[in-house]
Amino acid sequence: MKHDFHVDFSLADVSPEEIGLYRSGLREGRAKLASQGEAYGGWYSIPFRYDGKELRRIKDTAARIRRQCEVFIVIGIGGSYLGARACLQFLGESFPREKAESFGAEELVPEIYFAGQNLSGSYHADLLDLIREKEVCLCIISKSGTTAESAAAFALLKEALHRKYGKEEAARRIYAVTDRRKGSLREEVIAEGYESFAVPDDVGGRYSVLTPVGLLPLAVAGVDVDELLAGAADQNLQAQDTYAAIRNALWKKGKRIEIFESYEPSFFYFCEWLKQLFGESEGKEGRGIFPASLQFSTDLHSMGQFLQEGTPIFFTTILNIREPRRDAVIPESAGGVLGGKSMNDVNRAALEGVMKAHRKAEIPMVRIDITRGDAYAFGQLVYFFETACALSGYLSGVDPFDQPGVESYKAEMRKVLQTM
Ligand code: PA5
């Protein structure tokens, strides 16, 4: 099946000459990414050299988890959470059981829930209720092993498992993805004998979806992780470069916000993932383009006014699926311009209409079209944005791989907790 990944820059209001100004910066950025010395550039080569033995172990472990439980709880936050969540929603959120069989999975796919992505007592208490009568496995994902949200949720759910199964059986139902050597979670893995995977040393949280951080939960859900990696490896390098250059050129022209616009609800968490990727990579040293997202046509009825006539400090990146998974025809009885058309046709009309209106308002646009919302396309999107984001960060003069601002919130929160 053909997987088109088409990026249209023709409406971005940036000339080839302006893009050309970034050529040498892009070359330098690519050289940094490819060099072994670049501390957090490990993700850059992952799709092209994934360790086959580790991939086999991920799949075998996923098959075991499917046999063990009805509910699989993935505990993590930020980069240790958003990639898997985004992919599951992108592919259809909860996989019908028949679908798992068509992926080649012999076992039923468990229900998948997320924990530790917030500090809500209500959310976690509800989750504990929900799993009371179910067979459960946990997967704790934390590179540092010290993040408060994940640690709190893990302690809560682990205790529930201890009560339900006893410590020994609970340990057979706990899986961990963390640093290879450091951190209290790694120490616990060694002490308790949990099955575990490592987050590579040279891959930071928000660039880790194509490591066991994303691949293990996705394999449990029955996602074809080979397709995901194959899609990630299928790239147009020039499009990545141009997008990085255009973002910097638009910054120079006073654009301070990038709005990711999508027309399928299945993009919601992918846009959350994008916001983390760009926000943490570029938002530092008083610089950066603020990443935002809007779901259309829903948000046209709340933000449409601002988009057309508000402060002109943004540009948009449109995410479009050419062949949505399903469709529904609007009955003739609807009459007018709607009767007899399909929902997807009307959605397409919304997209075309919004683009025309944006054009009139002189809003710069980048448009990305994928053929279908499948695992291959998800891999293409992930790696396209990861690379373009890292290059864009280099062009703007920041380190796209640190997040001192996040660290500062963590430290301050710890101090407050000590006073309670
Ligand atoms: O991108 C990052 O590094 C962060 O957003 C982390 O993913 C997030 O803070 C969670 O950290 P950890 O995986 O150490 O629990």
The counted number of beta strands is 10
Mean pLDDT over the residues: 93
Instruction: Tell me the strand order in the biggest sheet.
Output: 1-10-9-7-8
* Structure ligands: 5-phosphoarabinonic acid
Number of helices: 17
Q: Helicity level, as a percent range? A: 40-55%
Strand residue content:
5-15%
Distance between the termini: 58 Å
Order of helix and strand elements from N to C terminus: EHHHEHHEHEHHEHEHHHEHEHEHEHH
Q: Which outline best applies?
A: globular
Low-confidence runs: 94-99
Largest sheet properties:
5 strands, mixed
Q: What gyration radius follows from the Cα positions, in whole Å?
A: 22 Å
Secondary-structure content class: alpha/beta
Plain-language structure description:
- It contains 17 helices and ten strands.
- It has a five-stranded mixed sheet, with helices on both faces. It has a five-stranded parallel sheet with strand order 3-2-4-5-6, sandwiched between helices.
- The longest helix is centred in the last third of the chain and has 22 residues, at 375-396.
- Strand 9 (314-321), helix 15 (343-360) and strand 10 form a beta-alpha-beta unit.
- Helix 3 (52-68) crosses helix 10.
- It has helices spanning 16-20, 23-34, 52-68, 82-91, 97-102, 121-131, 148-165, 167-172, 184-192, 212-220, 225-233, 237-252, 268-282, 300-309, 343-360, 375-396, 404-418, and strands at 5-8, 71-75, 111-115, 136-142, 174-179, 195-199, 257-262, 290-295, 314-321, 365-370.
- It is an alpha/beta fold.
Short summary of the structure?
The protein is an alpha/beta fold and 420 residues long. It contains 17 helices and 10 strands. The longest helix is centred in the last third of the chain and has 22 residues, at 375-396.
